[in-house]
Structure formats: C-alpha cells, structure tokens
Design brief:
This protein is α+β, with helices and mostly antiparallel strands. It is built from twelve helices and 14 strands.
Length: 342
Amino acid sequence: MARDYPGICARYLRPLALLCLSLAGFCLADASAALTRAELYQAKVPVAERSEAAKPAAFEAALRVVLARVTGRRTVDEDSAFGPLLGNARRYVQQYRDTQDGQLWVSFDGAAIDRWLAQNNQPLWGRERPSTFVWLTMPGGAQGGSIITAEDTSDIKTAIDAAAYQRGAPVIWPSIADVQRNHLDYTAVASASAPALADIAHRSGAEATLIGRGSAGGAGGVRWTFLYQDRSSEFSGAAAEGINHAADTYAGLFAVSGAAAPAVIEVGGVNNLTDYAYVQSYLESLAFISHVGVDGLSGNVVRFRLTTRGGAEALQNALPLSGRLQPQSAGENGVQRFELRH
C-alpha cells in the first residue's frame, strides 16, 4: 500500500466518502414485500392449454413451486419422498384460476401441507424470511457502469426478482432517486467494501446484504458476496445464483424438522396487555410453533410454554427476526430468555 499511497487514496477514499454521506437519511425503495402466509402457498405456472385435462399436471407443477418455497429445498422434484404429496396435488388445491398471461394461479391448503410435512419428517420453512438488500453493479457505458435499481427492467434484475419470488426470499433494491439524492455512482458502489455496503443495507431495514459485481457483457456471470449476521461468503454464478445462495442459507437456519416437543422461554419487557398480545400473536404466527401457553408471570417477564419443532436452536434463530425480541443470557436452568424492544 505504501508504494502507491496517492493512487490508493484517489481510488478508495472518494467512494468511501460518498458512501458515508449516504448513511445519513438513506431512504430506500420499497422491498419486494415478504410473502404472507397465504401467499407462500400460492403459485403461478404456465399451461399449454386451458382445459380440465391439463389441470392435474399444472396443479403438480404449482405444488412443486410451493414445496421448494416452504421446505427450502430447490430440488423437491428430484426427491422421491415428496412423490405421494405431488401425486395428490389436486387434493390440496383450494382455489385456482386462469390468468391473462396464459398461466394458472393456484392456492393450496397451507395447514394441510404443513401437517403432511410434519408427519413425514420433512423440513418446514415458514414466514421466518430475512429481507436481502441487493447491490448489483454492471460495467459498461459512458459512466463506466451502472447500479441496478428498483426501477430497472433489465433481464438480470427480472431474473433475480423471479428467483426471489420463487424462493420466497424478499429483496430490497435502491431506487434511482435515492442513488441520485445521496450522490452515489457506479464507481462508489463498485469500489466500496462489503461492510460499508452492508451498513447501508442494515440502516434500510434489511437483515442481509447481497453484493454483485457483474462482468463486461455478462459472459463471466456475477461475482457475489453475501453477508448475513456473522456469515460471509463469496462465489460466482448466474444472476439467480445470488438469491438462491441466500435462500439456501436461510433455509438451513429456519427450516425445521423432527417431532414437536415442549419448550419454555421467558420474555422480558412485557409492560402491558398490548405487549403481551404482540408477543403471543408473533409466537403463534411461527410455522414451527404449534401451541403457545403462559406458564407464569413475574414483574414484566412472561414465561411461555411452547410446543415446537426444531428445539432451542430454531427459537434462537427465528425469534429475533421480528426486530423486537432480542436474545438475552440464559436464565435459571438454561431457559432461553428474550427482551421485548419498544
């Protein structure tokens, strides 16, 4: 570094300064909204013809999409264990309709699918889905390159958004207005360190950061860097590979299997009925928790008795995703403890 200090300053300090400016009031475009529980069990698939005879195959194709999303496994159709479920796809259909773009929209019975997965010891990944902020730069043009934004309609962004929808992994893109307002350009983002970009992503409300550096002409794919909590990985691949890698990571943490078992947790900071209602509702919304009961109350600490799949690790991974339940040191007899943030 000492041999080319002026050059290094010129190359890195300007982009870093621009990024630092953006940390104050960096307002971002809306995320690709996280799927609701109902939407997790809905899918659209192309159909060759609009006839009743074509429906069974379309139902099975749609169920493959849903199962990949709610188990976290990309290759559901290659696993014979799912054969009985896929073979009875029509049984789980609640609604369906033809769409104007020549596809079939299908909504499945999520509760029944969850039961099948639990009874057959298959993983279940519910609504515990971190949002991923995507920084993607592509070289070329008069400005040296461009930042892919929320308004972009390029094939590469379309492919990433499609993969995010298929995997049920919400993404956030910066908007053109935000990039301009904060004086960010291709050079600033392309040269910035991963931690600096992750800092901006976290300030936007994203839990993870996916950074892509495209190659000229796209022939070499994209060099990806993925950061989530204490995890960091670098790899290269096509446009969709970045989101698929992120979704695989999340599924490894949040998709649970195994028999349901009792568990006890304590939640502090529960100061009134509103707080209590929030915590109970949130616990009940988690797919791997099948029962929530109150075991005791001491001051502003509520002890909940749960029936859950995945055990203590699943609770430790999933509960903080609300942004309001923060893990604390274990209590008496190793009881997991959380604090409700207000």
